[in-house]
Amino acid sequence: MMEQNLNTTENTQKPQGFFQSNTAKIIMVGLLTLILLIPLQFVKSLIFERSQRQKEVVEEINQKWGGSVSFYGPILKVPYTIYDETRVENEKTKQVTYERTPYTEYAYFFPDELKSNIDVDVDSDSKKRSIYKSVVYTSKLNFKGNYSLPDFSSKKIDAQNINWDQATILIRTTNIKGIQGGVHIKVGDKTLTFEPTAQLSTASNTSDLETSPMDIRELFKDEKTVFNFDIEYHGSENISIVPIGKQTEATMNSNWHSPSFKGNFLPKTGTVEGQSFPAHWSISYLNRPFTQQYFGTLPNLSDYTFETGFIIPVDEYQQSERAAKYGFLVIGLTFLVFFLIQTISKVSIHIFQYGMIGLALIMFYTLLISITEHSSFMLGYVIAAVAVVVMIGLYSLSILKNAKFPLFIAISLSALYSFIYVIIQLEDYALLVGSIGLFLILGAIMYFSRKIDWNNSTAQTANA
């Protein structure tokens, strides 16, 4: 009898094989986590593909409605004549003569004062195609200011070589297909109409509109000559303007809730009913790296603008992509929670069951992107998170045969998804909040795993 009891004790204390140990189980769970990164990468590729499709549709909508608007003008363009002298020697008489060949060049003069008032009405419903949408607007731009009489003294050009009666006014802009109606400018007491020129300007996708010739000597009887004109666009995405005035003042009003002010010059903004408008710019010629007049050619000045963007700040695809980047963290922490529960409760969880739980976690992201395409990101996130938490909670209830641990798992998953949602919504403090949250999660794991004897296949509670 004594020998039988001894044999029973020896059998009970007989160590189990390596594959039944905690070390082997955690290695298998870790390998499964790495394997699940493959379908998670497929989900990220799906999000990227849908995002690219949205960009293609947005570009197509913008091309038909009107693209972004870039504008600078009005510029006074005055032709003048220069002569190219060629030395000609007579071979017989050795007499040298000079032949003068006339060429026409152009001088470009910017306004002394340029004031603009810009009203932008963004379509609140936006333009849609299927599930995709683009932010479009109708803008009304008013420009007024004055010119001084052009000064050619810096180039030492004789007054008789200046073609005063062939002067024109030029504006350079993109999105000419988005211009609504005619464009007329009043200079002094004379009204002129802009017409498109046949030649594309040196700036990419930029065209010139020019008036018919006029004699500016009749207009510059006073020291200053004023001008005034309006132009209306159907456009999308942004408006950029080059401050060509010696002193440029601009005011913009819009109904868009989240403008993006870009370019070389930032505005002073006032808050009206929670919106970042009106915006005001005041720019001196001392603030920009170009002069008030050019001879020969007009350079591309599109890099020296003040600009306002009218776009959706963070769309659902960007937010879904950010959420998917935390997929590894969600899978890893969820598996770790199940492993700790398995070790503490001595309930065996098969690797296949871990796999089913991991696939359910990945399904969260496909649900998220598919729902947010037809609703808001917040609603899609809540629905997808609730669906996954309920599914895993019920599945873990059938595995663990106890309501206490499945409830703990459901609460942990809900807290994890809430934590990730907060990080996605934050911008300036995302790294800080994420770091603090991960630190607290690590502390909780260390606390709950402190009594596990990793040398045995089952958890051992430390002696009091």
TrEMBL record:
Keywords: Membrane, Transmembrane, Transmembrane helix
Gene Ontology cellular component annotations, sorted alphabetically: plasma membrane
InterPro entries: Uncharacterised_IM_CreD (IPR010364)
Magnesium among keywords: no
Transmembrane segments: 26-47, 326-345, 351-371, 378-399, 405-424, 429-448
Name of the protein in its database record: Inner membrane protein CreD
